[in-house]
Amino acid sequence: MAAMTPTAPDVTPESEARAAARPTAPARTRRRPRVWRGLVLGLGGAYFLVPLIASFVFTVHTPGQGVSFDAYTALLSADGFTQSLLLSLGLAAATIALSLLLAVPALVAVRLGAPRLRPVVEVMCMLPLVVPPIALVTGISTVLRWGPDHLSRTPLYQTFLAVQNEDFPFVLVLAYTVMALPFVYRSLDAGLRAVDVPTLVEAARNCGASWPYVMVRVILPNLRSSLAGASFLTLALVLGEFTIASILGFRPFAVWIVSISGAQARMSVAVSLLSLVITWLLLLVLSRAGTAQTGTPGAPRTSRKES
User: Fold this and answer.
1) How many CA atoms lie within 13 A of 273 on its CB side?
2) CA-based end-to-end distance of the chain
3) Which of 249, 266, 236 minimizes the C-alpha distance to 88?
4) How large a percentage of the chain has pLDDT more than 90?
């Protein structure tokens, strides 16, 4: 048995010195070529930037006359520009507030008290993706025509008139809230999945916090990015929606752009570019609000002053 067992080679200081003196082969490192990455990014940037640049050139360059910014300087004095823009921003703010006010308590309640109802709530919130906007606005217009004829002697008659006020058509807020539900649900559901809501609520309740305090100071700060994402998508939806507002006879920003496109083509393109800039700025503000660092609720604050 001793003869069959291999013996380890003797290691002497001289052999260790020789091994250390041997030049080691340099490790071959392969660098992934960045050519394809730059090509893909360049094609993606060209896909978005070339149409915008072409549109901007169309608004400022007149054949035979040179460069002129009259299409942009005439915007502020254009009939209906300020009113339609403010109306769209007001509708967007009201839609964001109403959709979050409906979705956040419902999803939190389902997650805490009735997890089995989650598929039902999901199907109800995803249903607007199946119904086309033209079918939705057809149903809304039918109800608006039917209401005043059959409810003229009831207090609801004034309600039907109030929701169709041209200064602020609340019926558009209701329609936009329904259309925004799928995006709001997905964003909030992803945020609630990433947070241990039952543990947070139980800890806050054991400390004596009321339900409004738990909702405002415990749950909402942990859903900051999800709330910003839901607001992001809802704002983009409202500012670009045309079908429902046009058929119902209202004139927000998107409808106003289309209405002037036939008579003033350059101004309509200039307004479209301006609306993109405004939308990007508002979405940037929402994204910054969603990624702002806040302290953990209930965590002790450390003083910067050295004792």
Assistant:
1) 21
2) 73
3) 236
4) 15
Rounded to two decimals, the pTM is 0.74
Instruction: Tell me if 233 sits within 8 A of 180, measured CB to CB.
Output: yes
Tokens 């350059």, residue? Answer: 266
Q: How far apart are CA 279 and CA 256, in angstroms?
A: 16
Please, what is the Cα angle at 84 between 92 and 102, to 5 degrees?
A: 15
Q: Is the pLDDT of residue 295 over 50?
A: no
Q: Specify whether the backbone of 80 is left (phi greater than 0), alpha (psi in -120 to 50) or beta.
A: left
Rounded Cα gap, residues 187 and 150, in angstroms: 40
DSSP symbol at 283: H
What is the rounded CA–CA span in Å between residue 251 and residue 131?
Answer: 23
Q: Please name the amino acid found at residue 18.
A: R
Q: For residue 18, what pLDDT is reported?
A: 59
Type of residue found at 286: L
Nearest CA among 54, 55, 59 for reference residue 266: 59
Residue with more model confidence, 174 or 274: 174
